[in-house]
Amino acid sequence: MKYVTLEEVCENRTSNISQKDLKGNEGIYPIYGASGLIKKVDFYIQDKEYIGIVKDGAGVGRTMLLPSKSSVIGTMQYIIPKGSLNIKYLYYALISKKLSKYSSGATIPHIYFRDYKKEKIVLISEIEQQKIVSILDKIVSLIEKNKKRIILLEELVKSRFIEMFGDTIKNDKGWEVKKWEEVLKIINGKNQKKVENESGKYDIFGSGGKMGKADDWLVKENSVLIGRKGSINKPIIVKEKIWNVDTVFGLEPNIEIINCDYLYYFCYFYDFERLNKAVTIPSLTKKDLLKIDIPIPPLVLQEKFVLIHKSINKLKFEAEKSLKEMENLYDSLMQKFFKQ
Q: What is the 3-state secondary structure (H, E, C) of the chain?
């Protein structure tokens, strides 16, 4: 098995194009930046397929396989394979090297080809390179299909909710309206230090999601969480008892009037920013929340939505499981194919 350095099998080229240079320039040739396609312009720098690597700023080290007749701006660099090296093989090899580990710079991180040109990759025959590329391409395709499937299933639930209940913020179906204080109870979060236990029975939630385990709980099952500070527009539905930290409110619905699935999607579509009075970190008050108006559709209709939500969630769970399996397989094969 032969190992070669990156500088032996590919060359690096820089770009001096800035984003301001593109103003007013329109065309058919794509130009890329750290986040992907910027726009299409009337020129191109590379006439063949190449690899682009983010060398400055956010996403430093990110690797992209980019098409022929395109360009990148100056925060990226071109990597061009030499000789008979399969560009897709080189692309996967570069991803396996996790180039972001070479970043430096306190304010604006950056990497340069000189930082990682001595990295070694396995040099195998063109036939073997193509076999590896084919295997990895298939797995990546399955990963992307599962990601798209999950997104479509999430959108399906939202569309069914709107179909059944209308715009619950405008209440365009004319349901009876009640205040939050009439239909739910708000549970304040508490510091988790005294109940933290990695072997605990209950999940600890912050505004960003799960953050540990606890021996005790504050919010009962079938409730909704919303951020008190920070991420105030990202509700979370919980089906088990949980401990919420002091930056999170727990919403326990009166199940004789509303269920947690309906409440969750009401919160999803509600813009809590309208209640934010803070200048720096977004924050909500219990007093303001309790005065929110919420339409109350018949409970039988809400329960019908719960069944729909549950059936779609089952499909989503299967897609997420498949996605995780494919991602684990991808990581395992990358290690097998490109480890030194």
A: CEEEEHHHHEEEEECCCCHHHHCCCCCCEEEEECCEEEEEECCCCECCCEEEEECECCCCCCEEEECCCEEECCCEEEEEECCCCCHHHHHHHHHHCCHHHHCECCCCCECCHHHHCCCEEEECCHHHHHHHHHHHHHHHHHHHHHHHHHHHHHHHHHHHHHHHHCCCCCCCCCCEEEEHHHHEEEEECCCCCCCECCCCCEEEEECCEEEEEECCCCECCCEEEEECECCCCCCEEECCCEEECCCEEEEEECCCCCCHHHHHHHHHHCCHHHHCCCCCCCECCHHHHCCCEEEECCHHHHHHHHHHHHHHHHHHHHHHHHHHHHHHHHHHHHHHHHCC
Rounded to an integer, what distance in angstroms lies between the CA atom of residue 258 and that of residue 183?
Answer: 7
Mean pLDDT computed over 87-111: 91
Q: Which residues of 89-105 are buried (b: 16+ CB within 10 A; e: fewer)?
A: bbbbbbbbbebeebbee
Contact status, residue 238 vs residue 219, Cβ threshold 8 Å: yes
The answer, yes or no, to whether residue 41 has pLDDT greater than 90, is yes
Query: Can you read off the two tokens belonging to residue 142?
Result: 């399955």
Query: pLDDT (tens digit, 9 = 90+) per residue, 119-151?
Result: 999 999 999 999 999 999 999 999 999 999 999
Confidence at 340, pLDDT banded by 50, 70, 90: low
